[in-house]
Amino acid sequence: LTITVDGLAKLLGVPNDHMLRKMRFIGMNKLANDYLLSNEEAADIALTYGVVPVIPEESGPELYPRPAPDDMSKHPLRPPVITIMGHVDHGKTTLLDTLRSSSITAGEAGGITQHIGAFSVLMKGGQNITFLDTPGHAAFSAMRARGANATDIVVLVVAADDGVMPQTKEAIQHAQDAGVPIIVAINKCDKSGVDPSLIQEELLQHGIQTENMGGDVQAVEISALKGDGVDELAENIATLAEVLDLRAEVDIPAEASVIESQVEKGRGNTASVLVKRGMLKVGDIIAAGTTWCKVRSMADDRGKPVVSAGPATAVKIMGWKEIPQAGDLVLQAKTEAQVKDVIANRIAKRKKREQLDSIEAVNEKRREIHRPAVQPGTTDVSDSVEIPVIPIIVKGDVSGTVEAVVDALQKIPDQKIKTSIISTGVGPVTASDVDMAKTADKCAIIAFNSKADKKIQGLAKRSNVEIMSFRIIYKLLEDVESLLLSHLPPIT
Ligand code: GDP
């Protein structure tokens, strides 16, 4: 992304020669109308006109999900994905267990259930239903927060003997926010003296209108413990899924969501994923967040090795370089070289974002501290004490000294000066340290047993960045404190 001198003048709405004069003034030498300016140069010029430029972040190597096909009806139906939600102790885990064991008897004998974050139930009619089995709302929210809306239907469990409780309301809210339809399972109906119809009335007050109450939300009376009504619940899910007409492409590279991940003895880094579209196969190269994997092997919810997994099925994947996070989007790359580029790019971007965030946090803190504390009803600001906040970059020869310096800095009493460590590192002070210090307002670099060469010292001087070098850890605390207080220019 570049712009000519001429183009920028037009964009800023200023006469060319005026801008050229300004450019000379700020020390630029590209003084002709057709010169190409870099992003940074254009930004510097814009700033002299009081225009704060937004430099678009270069995207770099990245993987993207495929656009949705125009005509979904050509693609095969897929199983629905269900999340069970509800208040604590209302029977979510019991219901999952009952569903799971019914699925094992339906499946092959001898399978041992493995918790991989989701399991499939084969219905008598031949349909499959996938249940996410991380009960609680945290997983659902985590996935949703990361844009992985993996759930098609929420089964809301409400205990007939307890009624609508705080987490019931929360679950309703989550489902509604996500636009996911609800099926109500009124549980513990085996208990004597309970009246399930009261639950339906109660739900009505919370925006859930069941069929009995004249609405379109299905409600099933069940006993998760005894198994009564659980088949009917599964049938209702299958019927609703049919109405939703859930389809997915199978003949494309896989796209999936990470459900959970862990380091396992003998297996290394593993992650369970829910395939959303396409076909995931052993040998595929996939990326998730800032890690990747050449799929070494996969196992289904019975621990059985599988070589491929299609839409709405969950598999545990072995072979990750590092474990990904729940909710991470899994996308397929063509080659190892490509996936490595993508991950390197993502890590670099994350680092940059973190740096910018910490710099912004420091600047915000400073603004807060320098904002006069006005008492209500008065405009007197004479009492407000100004405590400078100094952003600090710490460099040391080995990580132990870096930690010692960070420790020492954190022990400086807050009343005198506040420090905020925006970056630490092992090795000599580099140009990028100086650059970062320049970006953060009045930032200092503390170098412990770590040199800054002449070139860097010159750069720091020109950039108005203070590099403080230390060699003796003894008294470091006091030295740092007094140096900070004396050397830093007063804050205006
Ligand atoms: P969760 O916190 O929602 O996962 O609830 P649990 O599944 O752990 O169940 C909480 C308690 O309720 C346990 O003691 C279960 O045995 C009991 N429970 C669950 N479902 C039923 C049911 O249908 N009938 C009865 N009587 N008790 C149940």
TrEMBL record:
The keyword Protein biosynthesis applies. Belongs to the TRAFAC class translation factor GTPase superfamily. Classic translation factor GTPase family. IF-2 subfamily. Keywords: GTP-binding, Initiation factor, Mitochondrion, Nucleotide-binding, Protein biosynthesis, Transit peptide. One of its GO terms (molecular function) is GTP binding. One of the essential components for the initiation of protein synthesis. Protects formylmethionyl-tRNA from spontaneous hydrolysis and promotes its binding to the 30S ribosomal subunits. Also involved in the hydrolysis of GTP during the formation of the 70S ribosomal complex. GO terms for cellular component: mitochondrion. It comes from the Eukaryota. It is found in: Mitochondrion. Residues 77-254 form the Tr-type G domain. This is Translation initiation factor IF-2, chloroplastic.
